[in-house]
Amino acid sequence: MFDNYYFIGIGGIGMSALARYFKYIGKNVSGYDRTPSRLTAELESEGIQVHYEDRPDLVPINVAKTFVIYTPAIPAELQELQYVREKGYNMCKRSRALGEIASGKDCLAVSGTHGKTTTSTMLAHIFASGTEDGCTAFLGGISKNYHSNLLMSKGNVLVAEADEFDRSFLQLHPQIAVVTAVDADHLDIYGTHDAVKEAFRQFAAQVRGTVVAKLGADLRTEGVSAKILHYSFDKPCDFYASDIHPLQGGYFSFTLNYPGGRIAGCTVGVPGWVNVENAVAASAVALLYGVEPERVKNAIATFSGVERRFDIHVNTPEVAYIDDYAHHPQEIATAISAMREIFAGRHLCGIFQPHLYTRTRDFADEFAAALSKLDSLILLPIYPARELPIEGVNSEMILSKVTIADKTLVPKEQLMETLKQRKIDCLVTFGAGDIDRFIPVIEEYLKNV
CA-to-CA distance for 371 and 351, rounded, in angstroms? Predict the structure, then answer.
């Protein structure tokens, strides 16, 4: 029915996957984003037109043949958004479009306030490498196995990262779903942790077959008709790891226990105990769907990870550099815990760019506690994303509460100068803003220092 698909906010990780999907099925795809990025450059190289000025005249003029998809992160006053509404274009949010695509498939969804990107990407890799039909997958990060956030298949399996932001995941009605965590987050949307818990309950109530919840996650189950199973890193339950043995470089061997038996001699292709936990969750969904145990074992061993998720860029005896998307206190604490195991005895310096004024306001104490687990901290100003400043809310709120002595707050323009004044042993960058722009610069510097 529609020839043209126009994306407002096309550079977002979820939006770009949808743009790639519609391009793949033969539609004319174009869109707007505020700033150029590596991802928008890739879209352009794939034949998708992207512009970076708020210009309604660049929206396809054929209203009847054009469908507009927009992200809720776009400000309401954007001229293009106002224009398509005034002109009567057919339009919907990103989550609705994904829900429509998933409705005709066997949807396997991974939700949770953290861990969902790695887990869903690992699940997609199990199907892509371990089954003949593969899967279609909409991912919240760039898979290092496939160099994309979209996998396409003619099979009936669709893997989706089920995002709780803006209650997006309530557009999905999965056959099997994972719930990795139900922590307080996105309080600018939900207001209270209780409202977050209620949204996850609603999501679980929409699952048609089985919910695989992390053991200990505070998932409410009132009105949930799906079967509830649990997974854990190492605590006995429906799906868990045992016989866990550390290997060189932060890797582990383990036995995967599941209701149908045990899979011995498993390894995960990326380091860190948290990735064993993620592998247990992804494997649980695949096994429940009917993937053979040996194929699951082989797939998780060849998983290469996700860009910006515990992403090791430099690793020598002299210097190590890891980048991580962590932007919630629990994510930061978990990443630091994994780094302490992998880089035992090293001096750990962290660079953190807080994401959103509201998240900084709501979790300043928790951020400070997590960042205090570092040996030294370089803090950047808040990345505002979709938000306007809030009076009295700034990075100093976090810095003042951090308990380590070696801590400093610097503007982005002085970051590299600050780094060059230090002897770097083991460095990590944290954040969901534009801190990723520094990754290649930092990597190049540390490789040549």
Answer: 10
Share of the chain above pLDDT 90, in %: 92
CA-based Rg of the chain, rounded to a whole angstrom?
22
Name every residue whose Cβ is closer than 8 Å to that of residue 420 and which is 6 or more positions away in sequence. Answer: 445
* 223 assigned to some structural domain: yes
Contact 153, 133 (CB under 8 A): yes
94, 70 contact by CB (below 8 A): yes
What are 152-204's pLDDT values in tens digits?
A: 999 999 999 999 988 999 999 999 999 999 998 888 889 999 999 999 999 99
Judge whether 203 lies within some domain.
yes
- Is there a single domain that holds both residue 389 and residue 417? yes
pLDDT at 249: 87
Q: Mean per-residue pLDDT for 215-235?
A: 97
Say which CATH number the domain at 84 has.
3.40.50.720
What's the CA gap between 403 and 411, in Å, rounded? 21
- Which pLDDT band, with edges at 50, 70 and 90, does 269 fall under? very high
Q: Kindly state whether residues 86 and 160 are assigned to the same domain.
A: no
From the centroid of its chain, how far is CA 352?
A: 17
Rounded to an integer, what distance in angstroms lies between the CA atom of residue 418 and that of residue 329?
24
Instruction: Let me know if residue 306 belongs to a domain.
Output: no
Expressed in angstroms, the distance from the first to the final Cα of the chain is 57
| CATH at 387 | 3.90.190.20
pLDDT (average), residues 238-248: 96
Do residues 202 and 142 both lie within one domain?
yes
Per DSSP (E only), the strands in 353-397 are: 376-379
Give 376's strand partners.
349
Could you tell me if 79 and 112 lie in one domain? no
Q: Look up residue 244 and give its DSSP letter.
A: E
Answer yes or no: do 442 and 401 share one domain.
yes
How many distinct structural domains can be found in the chain? 3
- Which residue range is the domain that position 62 belongs to? 4-93
Is the pLDDT at 131 greater than 80? The verdict is: no
Mean pLDDT within 297-324 = 95
Identify the pLDDT of residue 434. Answer: 92
- CA-nearest of 268, 304, 265, 305 to 283 is 268
Same domain? For 321 and 250 the reply is no
Residue 321 lies in a domain: yes
CA atoms within 13 A on the CB side of 97: 23
Distance between CA atoms of 429 and 332, rounded to whole angstroms? Answer: 10
Rounded-to-integer distance, Cα 381 and Cα 352, Å? 9
For residue 175, give the 3-state DSSP assignment: coil
